[in-house]
Amino acid sequence: MSKNNTSGPPGKRLEDETEMEKILSKKTGEIIPLLGNEAIVRGALEAGVQFVSTYPGTPASEIGNIFYKISKKAGAYFEYSVNEKVAMEAGIGASFSGLKTMVAMKHFGLNVCAEALLPFVYTGSKGPFVLFVADDPGCWSSAQSEQNSRAYSYLAHIPTLEPSDPQECKDFIKKAFEISEKFKIPVMVRTTTRVSHQRMPVKLGKFGTIKALSGKFVKDRSRFVTLPPRVMEMKEELLEKEKKIKEFAEKGQNPNVKGFKKGIIASGISYLYVLESLKELGTSLPVLKLDFFYPFCEEKVKKFISSLKEVLVAEELEPFLEKEVQRTAKEANCKLKIQGKNLLPETGELKPEDVTAAVAKLLNKKYSFNKGPEIPSPKRFPQLCPGCPYWLVFGGVKKAVDEKKVIFGGDIGCYMLGGMPPHNLQDFLSCMGSSIGITHGIKKSNLKNPQKTISFIGDSTFFHSGIPALINAVFNKSNPLIIIMDNSTTAMTGHQPNPAAPTTGQGIKIYDMVRACGVKNVKIADPANQKEFIETIRNFINKKEVSVIISKHPCKFAGKK
Amino acid sequence: MKKDKKQFNAVIVGTGGQGLITMLQIISRAAMIKGLEVKTSELHGLSQRGGSVEVHARIGREIYSPLVAAGKADLILSLEQQESLNAAVFAGPETFFLINRFISPIPFQPPVSEKEIERLLRGKTKKISFVSASEICKKELGTPVTSGIFLLALASLKKILPIDFESFSRAVSEAIPKKYLELNLKTLSLAEKHASNQKKD
Predict the structure, then answer these.
(1) Is the per-residue pLDDT at A4 higher than 80?
(2) Spatial distance between the Cα atoms of A435 and A456, rounded to a whole number of angstroms
């Protein structure tokens, strides 16, 4: 099933052939309404992307959905990889072979692929390489944390651009490819939900020349092998590169601050809210927009703040820019008053009115509106679709065991809804694959007073990161009962193929894999046959070794896309 | 859109599968036809599993934010009546509520009646209109699926939306895939008929 996120059943967006044709338009200068993520795809096509890999995850899912449909027509290679690390590695291989490459994922995917990303920034790219990452402030489609992926820019030393709207999404992807080509380094483009799912008319550029898969790996061990002591030299080279990129990033006009005592620094979606606020308050202030999050444009900021008395740093989530501005001000203008997270929330996405209130504070203006009476809002929770096989799985589990005496491990996919009424079968939920890994830890901890457990995991999530956890449970001898819910698709993110899917995947047999991992108690059971399903649960939950039920029943949307 | 006002802010709410994103695409097209700037914001999330959906559209001049600020909506279009309450945060005294007289039950909760919804929303604005869009569409077209388009067309005909009906119709023709176009054009005629009947009353 898949990453917590969801594009849901396919909408009419690019489902429709005519809509798809628009993305492939050869009419330079044409203006068409595009979603941020559609603009990302268009930008990559204009840059001439040759190789694209991804693992689906909202708010980045549309990137894969679109490439899945158009890549052949565009002449580019596309794959749904099994997880983000593998997607990244495939992309690295393509870049090492000289291809123009883009790898796309949601923020949590960056955690999965971080191990591959860090050394790649050391070796550098050969074919230009862009990493696209979409964050989800406010956790609209994300169930594990409110991750601010900009922290990875520091960790990996990866140059990072932050577009504000779909036009910039398209333009920045092209710019990112240019930077990558010029400095031989992977470049990250980071958006948030409100950028990726923002739609506006976008002016198209020239469609790129996409050369077929013409890559060639040319041996160069000093470049591609990160063994010490060479790796230490590589880091030195990276830091040198970074200096040059910084000089490049510092170019461009600064806003005129003459006659102003106050100013605002912003990036990404916050920049749009700042412009809206100034209009709303009927005033003008110099605004420094930072296209580069990393490297930080110290000189630009110095120039901007040197004659100001007060500055507001408007940014979403953690105050990374604000800290940089504080550091820079120590040298450039130590008396500068810096406002930011004292006026803006650090949790949740920014709302336009939050920024207006902060800008009003900066200007010592009164800003309030009559909120009117509090109106109770009816909470409507999402539900499993009618006809979803998981109704049968959860229903069967409830009949098979005493819910109070069993610990239920949740995982990432549609079946997260098992944590909501009427099911209420989820005692912990963390990250992809963790239902197995965490349950193993629980099992090993309670050996003196054994507790019964059931871990739920979907087919795509099992392939993504459940397999090592399963092997670990066998290797280290615990006895969780794992229900792998094979519905033949990656449903939650919009029904992308997965390796086990019979028509869209390769039909890899989960049963054979589980057996090969050393699991002795394994059975395929269709939850529609409740009697057999319930009996199997009752039988397996008392086993002394790992046991796996493969609950096989297709999602009603499987294979229909 | 009043002459002194540069922007028109709309919030559309409903439940998954009611075609809200299609409505945004039509609004975007229509704005482009009128030579106006446009930004929309949509959420592709759990909503599609039957949860609440909320999308925004802003058209006019100097449009930066894709989101409507609290209290700043000109139009709140609610495709399910209880959902109008979830959008109340965007309402101010000038906001027009156009509400589909249609209930999609919320599990484990008693439905909120039209009367109660009207009472609650009246604390915000006096401009509240309930229309049996789903019922009308179902009766006349055999399916309620285009009730959102019906309401949007009404908003255009009643000049709540700053887009004339001709431009609106053109936008529908451009934004809707061919196989659904006929149904949508029929919906437009139905809205026209409904609006002129209302005038006669």
Answers:
(1) no
(2) 6
Contact B49, A383 (CB under 8 A): yes
> Does one domain contain both A202 and A55?
yes
Which residues in chain A have their CB less than 8 angstroms from residue B32's CB?
31, 33, 201
Mean pLDDT for all residues in chain B: 92
Quote the domain boundaries for residue A428: 389-552
Reference A415, options A401, A399, A395; nearest CA is A395
A309 and A240 both lie in a single domain: no
Q: Tell whether A421 lies on the interface with B, counting CB pairs under 8 A.
A: yes
Distance from CA of B123 to the nearest CA of A (A): 6
| CA A554 – CA A490 distance, rounded (Å) | 11
Question: In terms of DSSP bridges, do strands A310-314 and A337-339 run parallel, antiparallel, or are they unpaired?
Answer: parallel
Size of interface A-B (CB pairs under 8 A): 172
Does residue A284 sit at the B interface (CB-CB below 8 Å)?
no
Comparing alpha-carbon positions, the chain B residue that sits nearest to A166 is: B39
Q: What is the CATH number of the domain that holds B62?
A: 3.40.920.10
- Whether residue B60 is contained in a domain is answered as yes
- Is the CB of B16 less than 8 angstroms away from the CB of A8? yes
Q: Do A524 and A456 share a structural domain?
A: yes
Total number of domains constituting chain B: 1
**Interval A173-185 mean pLDDT:** 98
Residue A311 makes CB contacts below 8 A (sequence gap 6+) with: A262, A263, A264, A265, A304, A305, A325, A336, A337, A338, A339
Residue A283 contacts B where some CB pair is shorter than 8 Å: no
CA geometry: angle B191, B196, B201, nearest 5 deg: 125
Distance from CA of B169 to the nearest CA of A (A): 18
Nearest chain A CA: its distance from B135 CA (Å): 22
Instruction: Judge if A93 and A44 occupy the same domain.
Output: yes
Chain A residues whose beta carbon lies within 8 Å of the beta carbon of residue B50: 380, 382-383, 385
Residue A384 lies in a domain: no
Q: Identify which of A371, A317, A372, A326 has the alpha carbon closest to the alpha carbon of residue A345.
A: A317
pLDDT at A16: 53
Tokens 């860090």 belong to residue: A118
Residues 6+ positions from A210 with CB-CB distance below 8 Å: A45, A48, A49, A50, A74, A75, A76
pLDDT tens readout for residues A64-74: 999 999 999 99
Quick check: is B168 in a domain? yes
Beta strand A160-161 pairing with A292-294 = antiparallel
Chain B residues touching A140 at Cβ < 8 A: 43, 45
Q: What is the CATH number of the domain that holds A225?
A: 3.40.50.970
Question: Is residue B2 scored above 50 in pLDDT?
Answer: no
- Do A75 and A141 sit in the same domain of this protein? yes
Q: Which distant-in-sequence residues (6+ apart) come within 8 Å of B169 by Cβ? A: B185, B188
User: What is the pTM assigned to this prediction?
Assistant: 0.95
Q: What number of other Cβ atoms are within 10 A of residue A209's Cβ?
A: 7
Place of tokens 């605004």: A287
Q: Which residues 6+ apart lie within 8 Å of A242 measured at CB?
A: A157, A159, A295
- The helix (run of H) or strand (run of E) holding residue A249 is helix A230-249
A280 in contact with B, Cβ within 8 Å: yes
A241 and A285 housed in the same domain: no
Question: Which of A9, A199, A201 has its CB closest to that of B48?
Answer: A9
Owning domain of residue B85: 7-200
Note the pLDDT tens digit of each residue in A486-507: 988 888 888 888 888 877 778 8
Instruction: Give backbone dihedrals phi and psi of A341, rounded to 5 degrees, phi first.
Output: -70, -10
Question: Are A64 and A145 within one domain?
Answer: yes
| Residues in A 10-49 with any Cβ partner in B closer than 8 A | 11-13, 16, 18-19, 31, 33, 35
Q: Are residues A523 and A406 in the same domain?
A: yes
Considering its fold, how many domains does chain A have in total?
Answer: 3
